[in-house]
Amino acid sequence: MKRFVAVPLVAALVLSMSIGLSGCASTGENGEGSSAIGGAIIGGLVGGVLANNTGNRSQGRTAVGVVAGAAAGAAIGNAMDEKERKIRTIAAERDEKSMQVERLQDDLLRVSVASEASFGFDSAALRPEFKPTLNQVAAVVRDDPKFGILVIGHTDSIGSREYNQRLSERRAQSVVDYLRSQGVASHQIGAEGRGMSEPRASNATEEGRAQNRRVEIYMRQY
């Protein structure tokens, strides 16, 4: 089962800083993060750390590392801004309650789709009306080899834990298989099921259970 690749300790420390910094990026009225600036700041931190860990701590080399890192971070931020705009346009064409787009970090986007909008009851077969949306999502990502996708399935608490785990895995895999059929490379995409383990709301009410039955598509620029 494919997951995002773990990072070394130094990179992990920088990533922890970037999570805090990404919240400082300005947000427009339509919810889009202006991440080029945030990406430049994060990239600058990465460049500085790399320069200071190569054995050459001279001011000039460090400055080069910071500038190079800032440029790389800004490029990632700009690329994600463009993809976010395209994904939000796709979401706007659907019922906003069934498809939600969230910018989690400069380089990470989450698209949540209610199961009722994507699958039939107790089924892992994609609804025909959901496929045009996935076609558009595939078109956004398939030509960018530095763009990775992880599809995660979730369920409510009705039924056994084992059954819901399998159902969530099958639904996530159905989305992955369809995106692959639309040209998304196998190395760019993976599937995972979380069953009932990560509810967004209380399973005590139908409204809460409806929020918990979902598929999440995480998109990351590398």
Protein architecture, described:
This protein is of the alpha+beta class and 222 residues long. It folds into 2 domains: 76 residues, no CATH class; 134 residues, OmpA-like domain (60s Ribosomal Protein L30, Chain: A), CATH 3.30.1330.60. 49% of the residues lie in helices and 17% in strands. The chain has a 5-stranded mixed sheet. α5 packs across α6. The longest helix has 34 residues. The relative contact order is 0.13. The N terminus is likely disordered.
Tally of separate domains: 2
Structural class: alpha+beta
Text of the CATH class of the largest domain: Alpha Beta
The geometry reads as globular
Strand content: 15-25%
CATH fold type of the largest domain: 60s Ribosomal Protein L30, Chain: A
DSSP helical segment count? 7
Spatial strand sequence of the major β-sheet: 1-2-5-3-4
Task: Count every beta strand, where a strand is a DSSP E run of 2 or more residues.
Answer: 5
Multimeric status of the protein: single chain
Order of helices and strands: HHHEEHHEHEHE
Query: Helical proportion?
Result: 40-55%
Largest pleated sheet: 5 strands, mixed
Beginning-to-end CA distance, first to last residue: 19 Å
- CATH architecture label name of the largest domain: 2-Layer Sandwich
The rounded Rg comes to 19 Å
For the residues shown, what is the average pLDDT?
76
Task: Name the CATH superfamily classification of the largest domain.
Answer: OmpA-like domain
